[in-house]
Amino acid sequence: MAAIAAEQGHKQHRLPKSGPTAKKKKKAQQKKKGISTEQKNPKAFAFQSSVKARRLQNRSAEREQRRLHVPVLDRSVEEPPPYVVVVQGPPQVGKTLLIKSLVKHYTKHNLSDMRGPITVISGKKRRLQFVECINDVNAMVDSAKVADLVLLLVDGSYGFEMETFEYLNILQVHGFPKIMGVLTHLDKFKDAKQLRKTKKRLKNRFWTEIYDGAKLFYLSGLIHGKYPKREIHNLARFISVAKFRPLSWRLTHPYILADRFEDITAPDAVQRNPKCDRNVTIYGYLRGCNLKRGTQVHIAGVGDHKLWNTSILPDPCPLPLATKKRGLREKEKLIYAPMSDVGELVYDKDAVYININDHQVQFSKSDEHKEENEFEDKEKTQKESVADIGELLVKTLQKTKYSVDEKLNQSSIQLFRRGAPAETALIKSHTVDTELEGQDGHGSDEDDEMVDTSSEEIDTDAASDSGSDAENDESADMSTKKDIERIAEMNENLTETDFDGLGNASKWKEDLLSFTKLKRGMTLMELVYGDTQAQLNGSDAANAVDDSDSDDELFKLKNQPPKEVKEKNNNLEDMNADDSVKLEMTSEDLEIWNSMEILESIRNRFVTGDWSSSARRNQSHHDSDENDSVMGDFEDLETGEKFNMQTANEENSEKVKADDKEAAERRLKKLALRARFDAQYDGTDPAVEEDVTSSKGKQQRPHQGSQSDYFDKLKEEIELRRQRNMAELADVDEEVRLEMEGFKVGSYLRLEFHGIPCEMVQYFDPRHPLVVGGIGPLEEGVGYIQVRLKRHRWHKKVLKNRDPLIISIGWRRYQTVPVYALEDRNKRHRMLKYTPEHMHCLATFWGPLTPPNSGLVAFQNLSNNQESFRITATGVTLEFNQSFQIVKKLKLVGYPYKIFKKTAFVRDMFTSALEVARFEGASVRTVSGIRGQIKKAVKEGQGKEGSIRCTFEDKILMSDIVFLRAWVTVDVPRFFNPVTTLLQSHDMVWRGMKTVAELRKERGLSVPNNKDSAYKPIERPPRHFNKLKIPKTLQSALPFASKPKLLKKRSKPTLESRRAVVLEPNERKIHTLVQQLNTIRNEKVKKRKEQNEKRRKIFEMKKAKEDELSKKRRREEIRERFREAAKRRKSLERDEDAINIRMGQLYAA
Amino acid sequence: MPAGLQLQGAQLFRHRLLLSTLTGTPLRIIDIRSDDAAPGLRDYEASLLRLLEKVSNGCVVEINETGTKLRYKPGLLAGGRGLVHNCGTSRSIGYFLEPLIVLGLFGKAPLSITLKGITNDSKDPCVDTFRVTTLPMLKQFGVPIEDVQLKIKTRGAPPEGGGEVLLQVPIIQKDLTPVSWVDEGMVKRIRGVAYSTRVSPQMSNRMVDSARGVLNHFLPDVYIFTDHYSGQGSGNSPGYGITLVAETTTGCLLSAEAVTNPVNQDGDEKQSPSLPEDLGTHASRLLLEEIKQGGVVDSNHQGMLFLLCALCPEDVCKVRVGKLTPHAIRILRLIKEFLNVQFSIKPDPETGTIILVCVGSGYRNVTRKIS
């Protein structure tokens, strides 16, 4: 063996003969030889014609424009939420295995079971959330709506399946996120050539579906039941550099892909009634745009629900802190998959649960006891000294005998330096007395108070630091002191009445809060929006006050509001205040403007005044919010001189105003530029998101001239806006900010819902994606929606008007009844009975309003076991309204029964005079095309009821039929039915309204056949017109030209026809020759025809024979097949019989 | 169906209906002047409801017998051309213009409507103010200003009215442009209109003279147009008034106006008509008051400014105003209720102005049709 190896030697290195490396080497070689690589004759390739040059220029300009996309403002400021990677494919293709491999690659974690989304950290700035898409239309639709990246798994050995194409179509409609294909099962190919061919074929098919050059991965096979590490690594690399498109629907709607779902209904309520409505919480990262408190959301597959409560939880899978280090450390490679039970930490609203595996438990008491038992004291002390302090602390904590309350009761506090330590119990009894002092103490350190959640005892501590008291007293004026006293009194009452109650503490705190407010003075925000804190927890208190008032109401004199309030219209609480924007100012109010002093005070507000003071006026504001280093004050370190913008402004006051504005603008622009550079440079933090290619194009051509100036301007504007947003919101208080802009994108939220149907909890399946999507203003309402719809070319049948259709649009899925129409030339919407074969048409249906330009996909049946293509139609919404006019044509037919010159009486068109009244003046037409008008119904008693008098442009015939062409408005059914697939068992098919065809099939009804509607061959018997008879007298009176020319038939032929033709000898010769030639040709043709006929006959005979043979063979084959099948069946039956007999024997035995 | 809102009282009736229509929130207003001697809706409010029915499609209004309860289910804004509305004589056209301008921006088609009634009265901003101050304000929010038009065809003074204006508002294609509008600048010129109808043309000149007397103290660039109506375009009642606009170096427009008391022809007048000189002085002093207060808009336009800010896309809007009027405060509260937009309000102590910052609600014109 070894000898052979030595003999063979190493394989020779083969130089690459093509490809980039070879090219490079060749170039180098040439350079070495001194051959210039530049073109020798550049003129040869210059434009020869100006037309060609212009065309090329046009083409390149066009390509340039096509590359550009409208820049979109990305409003997310914080770290982005994990990108959703949906793994989709037909069953048994290796989806779960791929996710497991990728998770293993990212986190070194072996997933045992895969349920629900799995969040992993894939890089320093990127998190991924893997979702497996099960093979169910509903899951496919929901996951397509949230996917950022889709890994389409395709079984290479089988080829593309319907699911893949269905999913691609769904994706296309809902925004078309980034798609990567992955081919698996490639190890089933034994033949390398076959494999190569298949790969190429599949790749080309994939490209036609997405775009040329879409990434398709090949996973070559399994090694130990896993995909090869290197290939997974490559796939992970591609995922980590993928750029994601901003999709317009998602940029304007907040949404959450739930990765945790809990039922928080009180257990006893469930026990009492298992079918009761549930309270549930849904957890997930907020994506899309900011979510405001208390907005309406749609839970896909469940329905619209109001957000009961929303709170931010700490990120369960945070990105690592910014470090200079390359790559991730092991500790930072986190995984979060609460539904799959892998993460150890579970954060709830107010608690954190740690799930520790048994073998990892180190600090439990049992261990300690064991240790004590096993080791001697000496050893133990030694060990403790070695262990770190934290461990010790934990251990001491475990050894406590008394609870915190008990300990506090026993403890004592030294209030004054030389005083005796006071017992807590003692203090407690005097709480009422010390209340006031306690509050005073808190006025100074209110921040502490807000944080402090412990009980009263600790608060009394604050009373002791009387130092702060004095300060507060100084600042508080007389009025507030009065208030304090009042509050104190109130407190006493409260504390006395329900001293023991738990409510005591909270009320006590409320007062404290209000007191602190008093001290600070009302801010403008509070004046306008009221005390938010009080609103949150003090609503019932207000109600209580109302109740007490209601008793006195009976004896109050109504209709006497305070006079001055009503006049001034200034009372904010006046419910019926006059609705006028004008502030009423009497001339007495304006008397002040008589004084010169007041007049002079606004002198500088005019251009005639002092510009510098005015500049300061605007300046003060700029300074306040631009305290960053770009424009702020600075100190000259050498001289120790301090400069600030204020002084500088005063010096050159004239220009300041303009300068200042420009400077601010410049500063923002600079920031924008920097951000853009950053985005281009590292490509990880795209500030302005756009298509990847466009930014690439930018880098290649930095000087593009005026072409993309507009584009640049747009981008700059957007970047400016972004910077302004960040600058303005940077210094806003966190709580106010939440109120202002809502929960930020990327935060981990806990959404609480009340009144959710119990079926959602009962049938919850983590494999089905749970999507919660926010809905914008106006989208809550219902109305008619008009869409441009096209039947999918792979759906087998055209769609029937008013047949129910399941539609996925926006976040929702619902069944509705569309009416199809086409727009005529004159903008009339004309109803269609069926959708056109290969054309778009308009569909109008009733449903929840969706903004225009959002895509929709329609299904007829959601079941998973149908072999045909499930997507019925796709489309896009055009507009919504509360009414649409769709019409269909109606032809009324009547028959004339009496005709005058141009007037005719027509019957059978209407049934009553009342009907006629509606159509007076309407235009009618006869079959022959004579136009006319309806005049009036005939008088009663004359003719049939509903007959009409019409006039025409010409006399009509009795055989004519009179038509009235009218348009009837078609009603669009006001019906829609939400598809609630999450409220039923997963393996049940959602059943809604049935189509007409289904109903007919179910009931065995045939299609109704109207005999009149059937097309028949048109029979037109020839019309015989009577001969025209002209009286003799008239004939004689007519001039010759008008007389009928009635000549007798000639009895003898004319002279010309009788005349014999005598040919010249030469002519005769020619004539005979031509005749002879013709005879020869005719003979030839005749012979050829005969021969052909003969050949044909032979061929036909032969063919008939062959046909007979093949028919026989086919029949034989079929017979053979059936015989085989019968044999097999029989043998099976025989086997079964045998088994049965054997069983019977066994039983008998 | 969206959850509705229940509100109490007749305050901010217009804005409640406006916001309800914009957000599509059904509304129930109870206790409308239920304690009043004359309970229920006023005729101008009913007229406003009829106007809303005209410009929208599919709205439902239910009023109980006494008119103290109202149920309003908004329709979709349709807009349209050639609409006519008679505003009645209890409130002036300004009352209807305020909500209509905002509504028109978010409709399906551009709005063009003729409003008939009183053009100038002392309770609401008069049509001149709308023309020279309110409509230019829309420019800040990216509304194509060349398509906005308010044409005064006929003047109509109280009590009989008879005025007619043509309002044209374009629709916005996608959304408004967020503003950062804090620089109030310095007043560089003052313009104005002194109108008189069915009275001596001298009245306007007298008003102009007195106004100039006050304002020329500060600025030489004061020009007040006189606008006299007689015959066909003069409406049914005599009246006169003056509207002043101060334009600053940064393009802010502050306006003030004064209108005479109704001139009763019967003779049994409660208030005698004001002297033109007094009106001129009053208006100019009001203008000075507005200038003193500061801010990028005058006190009458605060509410509308806040409303437009709240309707902006989800970007920061920043504006500076003078003292907040009670009406503006009520509107701020209403905005919070309907659009869930809260402003951060910070006083600027040096100038005595207030700076309001908000993040827009992300409102888009979704009713418009795409082709």
Automatic annotation (TrEMBL), chain A:
SUPFAM superfamilies xref list: P-loop containing nucleoside triphosphate hydrolases
Start-end of Basic residues biased regions: 11-34
Annotated segments matching region Disordered: 1-65, 363-383, 428-480, 542-573, 610-632, 682-711
Catalytic activity: GTP + H2O = GDP + phosphate + H(+)
GO CC, alphabetical: 90S preribosome; nucleoplasm; small-subunit processome
Domain Bms1-type G: 80-245
Keywords carried by this UniProt record: ATP-binding, Chloroplast, Coiled coil, GTP-binding, Hydrolase, Nucleotide-binding, Nucleus, Phosphoprotein, Plastid, Ribosome biogenesis
GO biological processes: endonucleolytic cleavage of tricistronic rRNA transcript (SSU-rRNA, 5.8S rRNA, LSU-rRNA); maturation of SSU-rRNA from tricistronic rRNA transcript (SSU-rRNA, 5.8S rRNA, LSU-rRNA)
Predominant localisation class: nucleus
Biased composition (Basic and acidic residues): 365-383, 553-571
Family matches, as Pfam families: AARP2CN, RIBIOP_C
Amino acid composition bias (Acidic residues), ranges on this chain: 445-476
GO terms of molecular function: ATP binding; GTP binding; GTPase activity; U3 snoRNA binding
Segments forming a coiled coil: 1101-1135
Bias (Polar residues): 694-709
Compartment list: Nucleus, Nucleolus
Record-linked PANTHER family: RIBOSOME BIOGENESIS PROTEIN, RIBOSOME BIOGENESIS PROTEIN BMS1 HOMOLOG
Protein family per UniProt: Belongs to the TRAFAC class translation factor GTPase superfamily. Bms1-like GTPase family. BMS1 subfamily.
Name of the protein this chain belongs to: Bms1-type G domain-containing protein
TrEMBL record, chain B:
GO cellular component, one term: nucleolus
GO molecular function term, any single one: RNA endonuclease activity
Recorded superkingdom: Eukaryota
Active site annotation, chain numbering: 327 (tele-amp-histidine intermediate)
One GO BP annotation of this record: endonucleolytic cleavage of tricistronic rRNA transcript (SSU-rRNA, 5.8S rRNA, LSU-rRNA)
Main location: nucleus
Start and end residues of each RNA 3'-terminal phosphate cyclase domain: 7-345
Domain RNA 3'-terminal phosphate cyclase insert: 182-292
The UniProt record lists the keyword Nucleus: yes
Keywords in alphabetical order: Nucleus, Ribosome biogenesis
UniProt family annotation: Belongs to the RNA 3'-terminal cyclase family. Type 2 subfamily.
UniProt-recorded name of the protein: RNA 3'-terminal phosphate cyclase-like protein
Species name: Ceratopteris richardii
